[in-house]
Amino acid sequence: MSIDLVTTVLLGVLYATGFYLLMQRSLMQVILGFLVVGHAANLFLQAAGGPPGAPPFVGVVPQEDMADPLPQALALTAIVITFGLTTFLLALAYRAWVLLGHDEVQDDLEDRRVRRAEIAAEREEAG
């Protein structure tokens, strides 16, 4: 079982794009990033499952020629979980849009305080 170079590069690009989108401030971009990472995970599961085999009909196909159903079952489960979480995130983004009028994630006040404290500590250290 080996994954070819094209699949490996595609997985890297999908994961990089997905994580980049997850770190954005817009909730829609976060949702798109979540979807791209989910698709990358499904592609990884399918690629890790090895080459396609014969359908698993007992008594008709020899056991060593049968396809492994576990990666396919894991990918199907991941698709269902991704669908459920995506609908939740879309509802959350819609609610934020209705209440706030935008979908941008705001800075937390505590994050600002921590950043100001870090800047003050750097100034004391330098000066």
TrEMBL record:
The keyword Ribosomal protein does not apply. The lineage of its organism: Bacteria, Bacillati, Actinomycetota, Actinomycetes, Pseudonocardiales. It is a multi-pass membrane protein. Belongs to the CPA3 antiporters (TC 2.A.63) subunit C family. InterPro entries: CPA3_antiporter_subunitC, NUOK/Mnh_C1-like. Gene3D superfamilies: 1.10.287.3510. The chain crosses the membrane at residues 6-23, 30-50, 70-94. The keyword Membrane applies. One of its GO terms (cellular component) is plasma membrane. It comes from Prauserella shujinwangii. Keywords: Cell membrane, Membrane, Transmembrane, Transmembrane helix. This is Multisubunit sodium/proton antiporter MrpC subunit. It is found in: Cell membrane. NCBIfam families: PRK07946.1 (NF005929).
